[in-house]
Amino acid sequence: MKYAWLGCLLLLGSLLFAGTQDSEFNVNSRYTVEAVVISADGWRTDLAAHQNPDPDGKLSSTLRKDAAALIGEKLNPTMLEDVGRRIRKELHARSVEHHVLRGKSPEYVQIVFEVKLRPARFDVSVPKFLYSSKQTFSGLAEATATIGHNGFTVGGVSDADELTERYSGLIARYENNKLGSDRVRFRFEFDEFHDQWNAATQRAGLASLYRSRTNFEPEVTITLARPLTVSFGASFQQMQPQFPAAETEAANALITTLRYHRRLEDTENQHDLDAGYSLRAATKLLSSDFAYARHHLQFRYMLTRGRNVFIDDLTAGAIAGNAPLFERFSLGNASTLRGWNKFDLDPLGGDRVVHNSVEYRYGAFQIFYDSGAIWDHNDSPVIRHSAGVGLRQGVFSLAVAFPIREGHIDPIFMVGMNY
Amino acid sequence: MAGLALGVSRLRAATSLSVSFDGDNLRVGAPNLHFLTGKPLERLKDAATVTFLSQVTLFSDKQGTVFKRATERLVVSYDLWEEKFSVTIPGRGQRKPFTGGATQVEEWALDNLAISAMGMAPEKPFWLRFDLRAVDRREVAEVMGESGLSLSGLIDLLSRKPSAGETSLTANFGPFRLIDLPRTPSGRGRIG
User: Fold this and answer.
1) Helix runs in chain B, H state only
2) Omega into B175 within 30° of 0, i.e. cis?
3) Where a domain ends, among A52, A82, A117?
């Protein structure tokens, strides 16, 4: 009962408290905010910077805008607490403290949000879950333990959407996001998959099928200049052919990826630009049974204006040489030529691909138009088109897509998250 | 000063607590009591607003029968550019906040945390308890929900011990009689 007096005070003074914000009595509320800085271990962003203050995109654009909106306004301690609470929630931080310092000019102050991240945390996530009326279920679930800069992930996957095979099995990954410097990251992944094949694929290429494959993939990513990163490493894949008597085959490749991400914002519009080029080159020097070079180019532009979102997604790829089936391109899934069945287009996949998707979203509503072609280098490409509508709320999506062609039209329904 | 006791105190030592009477009000005097210290001071130096809740309670017997209680809220902030503290007691009709150094502000605050002696018999003994606690704004928010008082929040708050570094003081005085107390000059009128 030590604090019974406080209870009485709260009871008796409830009206007083309900109608009054103590921060209005703060003498510093006459000062103007000059700068807002958010600082965490190995990361710092100055929101007063006019161009690209958060190149890593750690904060959502809404929170970044709200925090930047403090600049030029009179100091409001209640708002600082609110922004600090939102930063903590968004970054899953252990704590966020704000410090108010004298500004460079008299009557101005600077705000520093100091983020203390949790030394260790455990997350379970579902990066992909999808049901398609043609390919049935696909899903990936992962559990990640993060200790300092080290992340340990194990997951289970069964995916019939991405490739011409359904691969099911285990994923294990180690990541270090600060290898000596915060510009260098290291990742090592081990995968073990069991493969299942569609009847059309079996008919088309029985000899090239495999029943399981394993992958060891070490990779280092270096941030060259803030929006530009380069990754390089190697992938050692071993495939067990369908017939037990046959020898295991290896597809060992050097891999490199160049990625660029830029976000530009003005008062009304937000532009997101993502571009990437990846090369996987398998060579006999790595004791590979396959020798090939797989080039893949991706470009994505997203314009956000209020509730309106416009997206253009372009991808192109080519394989030179003889590549295993998991490297071959595929169209007609939940993200490309939606409405087409990939096994009707090319049951073995192709070594050439080009695809473009245009999408418009208003709030939860979305419409899209896909066009693309998949072919082999000695064939002629056939451009195909599809269109669809759907609902998208956060990570959840529901869509129906139709192939644009003459004759019978068989729509494909898709529902899921993060696909 | 019989019966003086410091209950929960994480304040800097208050070596000479006293009670005085100005003819209208009883006042607690503690020239060496410093509550602008520790975490509240850190928060103040970060331009935060720090609220202190105070209560002076009068008891008519040793068993703690309450016959008078006065509560106040002190709102303190620290001017980053002028390097001065500012204190306000909301609801007092104070035109301007009192500003000054830490000691000046502490003295001003204590001087204004008085309880009216109206209706008290001059020769009847009484006991006095003085409480002062820095309150996090979130603590108040926990108790004061959108739909009014949250009983579970209140129970939670009252059963919580002050954490390390938290400013909290409870001091018990008595017994006294009004006629025995030192008289100080009046001039601020009757409170409460």
Assistant:
1) 38-45, 102-112, 137-143, 151-159
2) yes
3) A117
The owner of tokens 């005097």 is B29
CA distances from B105 to A361, B168, B186 (A): 58, 18, 20
Tell me the C-alpha distance between A206 and A243, whole Å. 10
**CA gap A88, A83 in Å, rounded:** 9
The label of the residue with tokens 């965490």 reads: A40
Q: Which residues of A touch B129 (CB under 8 A)?
A: 5
Q: Is the model's pTM score more than 0.90? A: no
Contacts of residue A99 in chain B, CB cutoff 8 Å? Answer: 46
Measure Cα distances from A183 to A177, A218, A224, B48 in Å: 8, 17, 8, 36
Q: Is the pLDDT of residue B120 over 70?
A: yes
Nearest chain B residue to A29 by CA distance is: B47
Alpha-helical regions (H) of A230-314: none
Contact call for B157 and A6, based on CB within 8 A: yes
Is the pLDDT score of A305 beyond 70?
yes
pLDDT at A399 over 50: yes
The conformational region for residue A289 under phi > 0 = left, psi -120 to 50 = alpha, else beta, is alpha
What is the extent of the structural domain holding A359? 120-417
In whole angstroms, what is the distance from residue A98 CA to residue B43 CA? 10
Alpha carbons A111 and A82: distance in angstroms, whole number: 13
Cα–Cα distance measured from residue A107 to residue A35, given in angstroms and rounded to the nearest whole number: 13
Q: Where are the beta strands (DSSP E) in A160-291?
A: 165-176, 184-197, 210-225, 228-241, 249-265, 269-282
Does A3 reside within a domain? no
pLDDT at A251 over 90: yes
At B153, give phi and psi (nearest 5°): -65, -40
Domain boundary among A117, A133, A158: A117
The position carrying tokens 């096994």 is: A343
Within-domain flag for A291: yes
Q: How many CB pairs under 8 A join A and B?
A: 102
Residue A339 near residue A402 (C-beta atoms within 8 A): yes
- The yes/no answer to whether this complex scores an ipTM above 0.90 is no
Q: How far is CA A274 from CA A56, A311, A322, in A?
A: 13, 11, 30
Tokens of B133: 């606690």
Do the domain assignments include residue A241? yes
Q: Per the CB < 8 Å rule, is A10 touching B140?
A: yes
Q: Do A13 and B49 touch (CB under 8 A)?
A: no
